[in-house]
Amino acid sequence: MHRRYRWLTGISAGTLVFLYGPIVVILIFSFNASKISAVWEGGTFYWYRQLAENHALWLATSNSLIIGGISTLVSLALGIGAAVYMERGRASSQPLLEGILLLPLVIPEVMLGVALLLFFVMIEWPLGLATVTIGHCVFNLPLVIMVLRARLRKIDPVWEDAARDLGATPWQAFVHITFPLLRPALLGAGLMAFTLSLDDFVVTFFTTGPGATTLPLKVFSMMRTGITPEINALSALLVTVSMLLIGLSLVFQRK
Amino acid sequence: MMNSSLARHPSFLLLPTLLLLGVFFCIPVLLMFGVSLASRGLYGGIEWTLNFENYLRLADPLYWNIYGRSLFLAGATTVVCLAVGFPLAYVMARSSPRMQNILLLLVMIPFWTNFLVRTYAWIFLLRTEGFFNSVLMHLRILDAPLDLLYTNGAVFIGLVYGYLPFMILPLYVAIERISPSFEEAALDLYASGLSVFWHVVIPLARPGIVAGCILVFIPSVGAFITPHLLGGGQSMMLGTLIQHEFLVVRDWPFGSAISFVLMLLVVVVGIPMFTRRKFWG
Amino acid sequence: MKSEKFPRVQINELTKRHGDTLAVDRLSFEVKSDEFFSILGPSGSGKTTTLRLIAGLIQPDEGDIVIDGQSMKGLPPNQRPVNTVFQEYALFPHLTVWNNVAFGLRMQGVAHSEISARVGEVLEIVHLPGKADRLPSALSGGEQQRVALARALVNRPAVILLDEPLGALDQQLRQEMQRELKVIQAQVGITFICVTHHQSEALLMSDRVAVMNEGRLMQIGEPEALYSQPRCLFVAQFVGQSNRLEGEVLATNETHSVFQSVGLKPIHIPRVSQGMTGNRVVMILRPEQLTLSREHECGPTENSLEVKINQDFYLGDEMQYVVTVAPNLSWTVRMASQPDRNARFCPGEKAFIRWEAQHGLIFPQ
What we know:
The structure holds 3 protein chains of 3 kinds. In chain A, 80% of the residues lie in helices and 0% in strands. Chain A is built from 11 helices and no strands. Chain A has helices at 2-29, 46-52, 55-88, 95-106, 109-122, 129-154, 157-165, 170-199, 202-207, 215-225, 229-254. The radius of gyration of chain A is 23 Å and the shape is globular. Chain B is built from 14 helices and 2 strands; from the N terminus they run αββααααααααααααα. In chain B, strands 1-2 form a two-stranded antiparallel ribbon. In chain B, helix 8 (180-188) runs antiparallel to helix 9 (193-204) and helix 12 runs antiparallel to helix 13 (252-274). Chain C is of the alpha+beta class. Helices cover 23% and strands 36% of the residues of chain C. Chain C has helices spanning 47-55, 97-107, 112-125, 141-153, 171-188, 199-205, 223-228, 233-238, and strands spanning 9-18, 21-31, 36-40, 62-67, 70-71, 82-85, 159-163, 191-196, 208-213, 216-221, 243-252, 256-260, 267-270, 280-285, 291-293, 302-314, 318-326, 329-336, 350-356, 361-364. In chain C, helix 2 (97-107) packs parallel to helix 4. Chain C is elongated, with a radius of gyration of 25 Å. Chains A and B meet through helix 1, helix 3, helix 4, helix 5 and helix 6 of A and helix 1, helix 3, helix 4, helix 5 and helix 6 of B.
């Protein structure tokens, strides 16, 4: 058995190096003193200080947080109702509904982006924070519903029946039984949606307008104007934030 | 028999979701189909005609190399992700529970790391003044820098790098469910290490293989960020072509037609697979 | 070719460590050809580890396994003349019964015509000819068990290893399969080594049984010997039901010894060596060797104690009584059940138990 493992372990180690090598290089070079070259010329925190002083970046960050927060809350609020309806409602399956809930998740993002762009331009809705937030809701809502439904399927409806048998109204059964059991999934889904929203570039790119620059858009425009160590520093920060969010979701899952 | 307590819950639970997705997803997609039947106005606007010219234009040999490149790069990405991801997924699934958690975390971190940042890393590595060229020239292996960025190869590496976690996770879930006793039984029945893989592990991991391939192929074929940043104008793919038609040429009807055909492709290939309960575990 | 010069399987000083614990500790025994051999022990006794060592799924830290005179040292499972019937069977779920059974032959590159002949023949032996095209999931537990056996048999190995082969079956099917396994083994003449924690199963099926505990071999022998002449307290208590009494050897003469337990009158036991006088020992008595009666008198070579009937269980052909011998000391008595209800004993009743002194099994504590 162990002999069989050895070469597999070798390949796996190589794969992990491939996954992490580029990120590690970026992390290291975010501390590089040289402005132009990818050759190490001594350590500095200069680029991080530059970032801190970049007001446009702070604005983009606050836009990202607003869009992420609103789209996550809206998706959770609407998603919980839809998930409960679909898993606890009439047994007949609704292929059209399932399709509509799945499609935004599986089509390449560009398509969702251009369809929304077309729509907003046609109805003459000015592009901005609102249109971006709506775009994010369109991919976050199906995701939240999927996670919540998976969880609901594992929660035995017998408990809700028992609560009803003991005199609870459907609403009370939901509040006292289903909701508490669903809470870890709600937190997990919320964190996933928020992360996805913070990271999204494509849909944002097509639905954004004046004053609605998000963090990824800002990174993108910095990359277009020239590769500077400042981008390395920003990338390093974004990687760190992602890791923190994963850590947080793991902590929630434990509870 | 008693109904589930929520069985007769009114559909107002579903209504807001239907409204949001109906207005902001279904209508835009239908609108896109409508626009794909119109023609481009003189100054980039839309002229409402009813014809299939845009779909006929798709057959123009001008675009063949873009289709070819998209399908080829997406196919190659899928195959390489499978080949590279399978050993890691297998080792993950057969590790001690503690090690499994660590490896799972190691695969999840790139999965949740900003895609733009991960693509940027390859720009930093591959460009003319980039990391690889600097290192190779510093070591005097190269005299002049190589053109690594803005090539099909760069797009290919970027796609593999970007979508590898999408392959590993479903594979891991599938392999983890295969009891090790099947492998022991095969060894006991005279199979060599390689035949155990071929006759037992791979057939039993098939649901994961199919899921992983679809999860990699679909976003690869319609990828936008990777070909845009790593391929530049040299290595256009379907995703960049759509963006080009919409934002540069401003031929919305034609862009809509490409987009709509690609969406049909996804629906035909992907939906039957995704709607199986088994797929999501 | 069976060679009578060598035993079929020889286990020499086999040792396997799991971390700090010794899963198998200097284990040595031999299995003859054509033998149905069982390894019996509680969970954690190292019996499954031993089986996996023989199969080659794990390698020993020390010692060797010799099959037909050939050392198995370093040989992977696919190069050993051994096949396993796995616990829960491990039937490949994506292959039909026929393909499951043919798997081993295919891997060895046996010709197609021979494969179909041998698979057909072996499915006949396990009484499954009609199910060849089914998937394992479409079979009952008993049928799956037969396929797992067929999959091993078809390769005609020197030895077939069975890991808790009947553990997944319900009681009735279990008893049926116990007999059938034995019949099939006699029919094909292949050595079977079976691991089980079920003592009645081991006694019923096996020609010989090895009892293991904590990685060590406790006793090896025919089922009858294990039951009637256990060599240590562990075997006495693990094989069959037993009543236990702790005490001290008071005295020994030419014919017997005398044993004293706190709160009871002196008891005659088989003769032990003079040197044991004054030692603390444990006496074990089998429930069926006790007789319950309302009369006090007993024979000269018998012991008798007054007891209180605590519980009675009617088992059809026999009765089981739980009796209180002393405070905090309960024994079980098994007797043929009397057809007359009034002749039976009732809970709460006082009675006497009797047994032949020679039936007491004495072990140092």
